[in-house]
Design brief:
mainly beta; eight-stranded antiparallel barrel; single chain
């Protein structure tokens, strides 16, 4: 009888020793809205992030802007890969690599042709970083981020840089 009780006690102790510091949540998907960008430039930007594990995620962003001559055009879409360095799962300081395809218009002022609009579309690659805070339940997030990229095509835009920044509110499910 004592061996049976001892076996049960050992079993309970060993299974409880595998406890984690944070809840193992199934919230691997996150959608977010960049409210900072909206308040500053009236650009509507949505984001999606899928967590591969607690320290790595892949995702994408898409934005719409009513002014085609703004610094990043009137439409953009692109992927990103993030690595988190915080103490909590899926939050804290992060670094990212991103790509962005965007379109817009440039005002060209020529003595021969006059003032004309020049439609363009280009691709940029860049690096970014930021910080993400998550609630204790891992359902809601606030993110502050920024990044700098370089246009890689077409040749007219290869010397141009692009930047992105934001303050986003997110929901995980």
């Amino acid at each position: 009888m004592n061996k049976f009780i001892f076996s049960i006690l050992v079993l309970c102790i060993t299974t409880s020793s595998f406890a984690q510091a944070y809840r193992d949540s199934d919230n691997s998907h996150e959608v977010k809205l960049n409210i900072g960008q909206f308040l500053v430039t009236t650009t509507i930007e949505f984001g999606y992030e899928y967590y591969l594990n607690e320290d790595t995620s892949i995702g994408g962003t898409m934005y719409f802007d009513g002014k085609a001559t703004d610094y990043n055009g009137n439409f953009g879409i692109g992927p990103n890969l993030r690595a988190y360095f915080g103490y909590g799962p899926k939050s804290g300081l992060f670094a990212e690599v991103f790509g962005l395809y965007y379109t817009g218009e440039d005002d060209v002022d020529s003595e021969v042709l006059g003032n004309r609009n020049y439609d363009y579309s280009t691709v940029a690659l860049g690096l970014g970083g930021g910080y993400k805070w998550a609630t204790r339940s891992q359902k809601f997030t606030i993110e502050l981020n920024g990044g700098l990229g370089r246009n890689i095509n077409p040749e007219d835009f290869q010397d141009d840089f692009m930047f992105k920044a934001g303050l986003s509110l997110g929901y995980r499910f």
